[in-house]
Design brief:
The chain is mainly alpha-helical. 62% of the residues lie in helices and 8% in strands. The chain has a domain of 105 residues: Orthogonal Bundle (Arc Repressor Mutant, subunit A). The chain has a three-stranded antiparallel β-sheet.
Amino acid sequence: MGTHYQGTLAEQRALDVYIKLSRAAEAVNTRVNHHLKAEKLTISQFGVLEAIYHLGPMHQNRLAEKILKSSGNLTLVIDNLEKRGLVTRERDPEDRRCMTIHLTESGRALIESIFPRHVGIVVQEINVLTREEQSQLAALCRKLGLVDQIDLE
């Protein structure tokens, strides 16, 4: 269902595209990440494990940027991963205000065991599109993501 807003054609079209984009993204995210429930992981927790696994230990602030979460929200996510023994925090010796997050052996084992399935699910979801459609969608998403913040004043 598109918008019911009775604005200009341009407004209706923009709202309709936005609704479709949001619904599609939510539907794909739900299907792709459903398997995480079996591991008792949230999407944010998985994002932390995956980012550190592929990029190495990093400061909490950089990690928040990588997984698109606020640093306040990430603190709770990391607390819960630490309680499970999946990550550790270490103070940065050069800047004691910063914490560097590391995977533990258990965290590494967990992400190594679930990541291949995750990739398979992503591939299955995206393969409903042709190669050309995948390239087009990637380019369009990148274009939308790089738009400068709109001045709403």
